[in-house]
Structures are given as structure tokens and as C-alpha cells.
Specification:
It contains 17 helices and 12 strands. The protein is α/β, with parallel strands linked by helices and 478 residues long. It has a 7-stranded mixed beta sheet, with helices on both faces. A 3-stranded antiparallel beta sheet has the order 9-12-11. The longest helix is centred in the C-terminal third of the chain and has 28 residues.
Length: 478
């Protein structure tokens, strides 16, 4: 018998007054064998209690409610006035959310093929919690082909779940204790704050990058952050390619992170959700000179048992809405712990089957990845040519589908500028959404996404330039 039925007041649902109860000969409230434990008896002797007056929230929920998550705030504003070229042409264009819209035709054509997405009787049943063996095998093969790990991956190194955010929280549950902290190079992807703090109660400690290089973090800076931490630090979390900068770390920098972690008894989690969108390396024949991992006499990770990864289909396969993420680890102990609780993050069996059918077509998959990177490179070039023409500085990118642009020329507070841009019909993400340092040099940077059709990108840039011109005109005519 549902508890709502058993406890519902007669005055609210009067027609339930004479219901027959299968487990009682008469109304359970009148049954001599039916007992309700007193709330008072559940409290320690002599301890007073206050009856609930309305819904009660946990301290955790109250803490979360009191925090302002800027990425969510921006998205809510956009969704209330979303741009559409026909039905709402004056609405807000969203270049703040990291979504790739350049391959909708190709991906929809593939997914909607009956051979790919037909649901079978087997898929009406529960599937394996970490994803089917077949899917994990296909993911391992994909990552082996494109990431070229020193030690090949297999299905035992893979757990599939409902997005990288929930899976980062799983890492938080199995690697940290509540109240622990992790080092993270700042500014950092704002989702890290919510993904691992709201559930696992693990807290970020930003590490400052070098002044002359936003992707260079010194051992001294890591050491300083570790020493000054007000919580127990258990690990380092990085995004590579970096978010919000849209660049890959050098192999030298990655090794510095890993070696520092090993020498201090920390683990490393590397979020590589844009790992197959490294368009400069994939497309350009003139690859930027720099050291690769092969330049070092290091054929394996410094500490493979304590180095873990994340990847997903949202970005590289343009499937944000399906919310499919992957944990990657060589540690049997960590994988066993994750699989123990990954029933909380299962994916639907029909989605599992769709992904198996896509990945098993290796020729289509590999061509999709190449063509996607060509489109990203073209869109990046179009954006940066426009920014150059309008004198707007930016961090040069080589991966992902956004760059970090410098809007100090507006000469107003970053939040006020963000609001004016939204009023002007364009949403891009302010540096505060990435927990930037509260300083002149770190603020008034914005992340702008470019993985949209050129017509929409051009309209967005027109709106951006118009807002900046209006601000400048008003300042000059005060």
C-alpha cells in the first residue's frame, strides 16, 4: 500500500474514506496490530525536538541553494528568450554553452537510420550498470586508434555513464572523502565546482598560472597551493584540452602535473572530453612546434594506478543531449569501486545499442571525426579573422570549439558588460563563470563558442560589436 494513500488526510481525499485494504480486514488506523512508532521515541531521552513545519532541507541542500552558479544563470536567461531565425529572430543567440551544431545533418542521418536505432526486446530489459561489454569494447578501440595510449585500453578500463559530470562525481565518491579538496589550474571549467562539490562534497583549490602563459603552471605554484590549502588535498583535476582556453597542455606540462602528484601522494583526473576535437593537430599540416610525449624517455604514465581519465560523446560526437560519459582507469581497484556504485549513473540500453552501431562502423566514425575537425578549424579561422579586424585580443586556440577573448576595451565591470551583451542578444560566458581571480588582468575575459553555422556566428559577432560600440559612444558622450 503506498504510503501516500495510507497517510493522506481524509479531508483532502474524501472518496478514499471507505477504501478496502488488502492487508487489513478494516482500516489500518483501527487495526490493533497496526503500530506507528512515536517520533519522540526516536530521539534520545531528555532531548527536545521541534515538529516539522513545512518541508525540511539538509544542510547540504541549503548550502547549494545559497550559491550562485553563473553558467546556470546565463542559460536560464537565454532559454527564456531563445533565438530562432524565424520564430524569434531578436532572441538571444547562445554562444556560451559548449555545443557543437556543425554536424547535425550528418549525425541525425546516422542515428535515424533504422539499422542504427531500432529497439529490440532485449533493450526493454535492464542492461549492465557500467555499459554493455560490446560498447565498452568499441570505446576502447576508438580511444586506442585516436589517443594512441602507451598501454592499450580494453573494456575493463572503461565505465560508461550518463555524462562526464555525474562520472566526475563518481570519482569524487570513490577517491575523496567529504570535505577533501583538489588542486585545479585556474581559471577552470565552472562545471567542476558543481559536478564534484554538490554530490561528493569535494572542493576546488585554484592554482595560479604563469603571467606570460595561461597554460603554464609551475611546480612552485602547485606547492604553494598545496601548503596553503585549508582542506586535505587528495588530487589534481585538469581539463585537457583546456576549458576555457581552448588549447592543449604541452606534454612537458602534463608530465609536471603527473610527477608532482606522484611525489606528493596525490592522484590525477584528466578530463579529456574534447580529446577528439584537437583540430589543429588533425587538420593543419603546419603543426605548432613543441614537445610531444614521445620526446621523453617516458613510455608509461609516472603513476598509472593513480592517473584517471574522463571522456564522452557530448563534444566530439555532437551528442550533448544524450549525456554519455566514460571513465578511464588502469587501476582495477578504482574501477571495481566505480562499478560498485555506477548503478546511479546507468545509460539507457537503446542508447547503448545506438552507440555500439555507430562505433562499429569504423570508417564512418573516423571520417566523421576528421570532417568535424575540418569544420571546427574553418569556423575558428572565420571567428579569429573577424576578431582581428575589430582589434579584439584572444588566446590562440588549437582544440575544442571556443576561445577566450579579451573585452577590457569596454572599460566597464565584467558583470555589467555580461548583462549588456545579453540585452544585445548574445550570450557568451564571463570569466567569473570559470572562477577567475578577482583582478583586473583576469576579469573581463569571455569564452565564446564558434561551433555554429557561419550565418549565426556572423550575426552574433555583429551584436557583440554593436554592444561594444554603443558602450564606447555612451562613454564619449557623457
Amino acid at each position: 500500500m503506498p504510503i501516500a494513500t495510507a497517510l493522506e488526510p481524509v479531508s483532502v481525499i474524501s472518496n478514499k474514506r471507505n477504501l478496502k485494504y488488502n492487508n487489513f480486514e478494516k482500516n489500518p488506523y483501527n487495526n490493533e496490530n497496526f503500530k506507528v512508532t512515536s517520533v519522540q521515541n526516536n530521539n534520545k531521552k531528555g532531548k527536545s525536538f521541534i515538529p516539522l513545519n513545512g518541508p525540511k532541507l539538509s544542510k547540504r541542500a541549503l548550502e547549494i541553494q545559497n550559491e550562485e552558479f553563473l553558467l546556470s544563470k546565463g542559460i536560464i536567461i537565454v532559454r527564456n528568450n531563445k533565438y530562432h531565425p524565424e520564430s524569434n529572430p531578436n532572441g538571444i543567440i547562445n554562444l556560451g554553452t559548449a555545443e557543437n551544431k556543425l554536424n547535425n545533418v550528418e549525425m541525425l542521418s546516422k542515428i535515424n537510420d533504422p539499422k542504427i536505432s531500432t529497439v529490440t526486446a532485449e533493450q526493454l530489459l535492464y542492461g549492465p550498470n557500467p555499459g554493455s561489454n560490446r560498447l565498452r569494447e568499441e570505446i576502447a578501440k576508438l580511444l586506442n586508434r585516436h589517443f594512441n595510449p602507451k598501454v592499450l585500453l580494453n573494456k575493463e578500463n572503461i565505465c560508461v555513464g550518463n555524462g562526464c559530470g555525474p562520472l566526475l562525481n563518481l570519482y569524487g565518491e570513490v577517491l575523496f572523502d567529504a570535505g577533501d579538496a583538489f588542486l585545479v589550474p585556474g581559471p577552470f571549467y565552472g562545471g567542476f565546482e558543481a559536478d564534484i562539490k554538490y554530490g561528493a562534497r569535494v572542493y576546488p583549490i585554484p592554482v595560479q598560472h604563469e603571467e606570460d602563459d595561461c597554460l603554464k603552471v609551475s611546480e612552485e605554484s602547485l606547492e604553494k597551493a598545496l601548503i596553503n590549502a585549508n582542506r586535505p588535498v587528495k588530487g589534481i583535476i585538469i581539463a585537457n584540452p583546456n576549458n576555457p582556453f581552448g588549447r592543449c597542455y604541452s606534454a612537458e606540462q602534463l608530465l609536471l602535473f603527473c610527477n608532482f602528484a606522484k611525489s606528493h601522494g596525490l592522484f590525477v583526473i584528466c578530463d579529456e572530453i574534447y580529446g577528439l576535437s584537437t583540430w589543429k593537430d588533425i587538420v593543419s599540416e603546419n603543426i605548432e612546434e613543441g614537445k610531444s610525449i614521445e620526446d621523453y624517455e617516458c613510455h608509461y604514465l609516472p603513476d598509472p594506478e593513480n592517473t584517471h581519465g574522463l571522456w564522452g560523446f557530448s563534444k566530439d560526437f555532437c551528442l550533448n543531449g544524450l549525456r554519455i560519459g566514460v571513465t578511464i582507469s588502469y587501476s582495477k581497484t578504482v574501477m571495481a569501486a566505480i562499478q560498485k556504485i555506477c548503478f546511479l549513473t546507468c545509460i539507457p540500453t537503446n542508447i547503448d545499442n545506438i552507440l555500439v552501431n555507430i562505433l562499429s562502423d569504423e570508417e564512418w566514425t573516423d571520417n566523421f571525426i576528421i570532417n568535424n575537425n575540418r569544420k571546427l578549424y574553418k569556423s575558428y579561422s572565420h571567428l579569429t579573422n573577424s576578431l582581428n579586424a575589430h582589434g579584439i585580443p584572444y588566446v590562440k586556440g588549437d582544440s575544442g570549439f571556443f576561445i577566450y577573448i579579451d573585452l577590457h576595451q569596454a572599460r566597464i565591470d565584467e558583470y555589467d558588460l555580461w548583462m549588456k551583451l545579453l540585452e544585445g542578444g548574445i550570450y557568451i560566458s564571463p570569466s567569473q563563470a570559470f572562477f577567475s581571480k578577482d583582478s583586473y588582468s583576469e576579469r573581463n575575459w569571455f569564452r565564446i563558442c564558434f561551433a555554429v553555422e557561419q550565418k549565426e556566428l556572423d550575426l552574433s559577432l555583429e551584436r557583440l560589436y554593436k554592444v561594444l560600440e554603443t558602450i564606447k559612444y555612451n562613454q564619449q558622450n557623457k
